[in-house]
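Provenance

Sequences were taken from public entries as deposited. Structures were produced by running a predictor on each sequence independently, with no templates supplied. The record for Peptidylarginine deiminase-like enzyme from Dokdonella koreensis DS-123 is shown for reference.
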Amino acid sequence: MTDSSLRLPAEWEPQAAILIAWPHAGTDWAPRLAEVETTYVALASAIARFQTVVICVADAQVRDRAAALLAGAGVDPGRIRWVPIPYDDTWLRDSGPITLTDGSRFVLADFRFTGWGGKFEAGRDDRLVEGLVERGLFHAATHQRIDWALEGGAIESDGQGTLLTTWNCLEHRHGSQRRDAIAGTLRETLGVDRVLALEYGYLEGDDTDAHIDTLARLAPHEAIVYQACDDTGDSHHAELERMADELVALRTEAGRPYRLHALPWARPIVDGDRRLAASYANYLIVNDAVLVPAYEDPADSAAAAIIGAAHPGRTVVPIPCRPLIWQNGSLHCVTMQLPAGVLAPA
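Predicted structure for Peptidylarginine deiminase-like enzyme:
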């Protein structure tokens, strides 16, 4: 059971760093490595403008290549922290630590990572948090292994005891468990009071079974930013309309409706005959900024403006994400925030 004084911070609270893993020829990025590295350079460059970026690298050769690319982009090397560690893939939102804190102590909740329900090999990724702890990355942090499957992209926290998620994902991971038992495990392990789970919402090309971070995001001041679809001829329209209705019906802990920010819909992006999951909801919050996906679509600028309005006072930085969605995820999926105070001195 999690200490009752611990809580799961909101992403918009102060951060120590963002954790990423550099793609390399031993990952599924191999066929389009140079292309996806352009996105990683843009991502790491943007993060480093505002805070530290911790970069996992598989070996010295991967580090040297990444360092050369980032130096060429003018990234301050003092903002980069390298961690040599093995990994299967680079989706650290789902294999990285879910960090709870009481303000001075930290617990690294290390849930079982199954490769999204056994879809992909995940043995090294399942040991990633343990490996980061062994390498001395964290300060005043307790490593808590939890034998229950959960990915960071499946949950959204407001930092005040409310968790937003989807039943689709949770029931794919724990089909033999009752919903009240699933919600109870989330409350117990994450220190939350309320679990709000959506029935509807999905994206073609998403193999996470409807992670909430591709659909709807909690935002400051009792707000939710969500992916809408205004194209009545699109296969997503009916499902996302039902999800929007669910969001309208949700209430804050104080009983008020949430302030809703609907994101525009990008035109279909396909790779061969495969529809790719281009969600604007998959954005990343860092200190003093919000990094937003860009898909070379006319809706990019409108989406950035809406996300910026939902996170006032933050610089809005577009990141090119077409290379990422080729592997069925986007900007938020490849990152994990580390709360202020959790990093050990370099």
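The chain is about 25% helix and 25% strand.
The mean pLDDT is 97.
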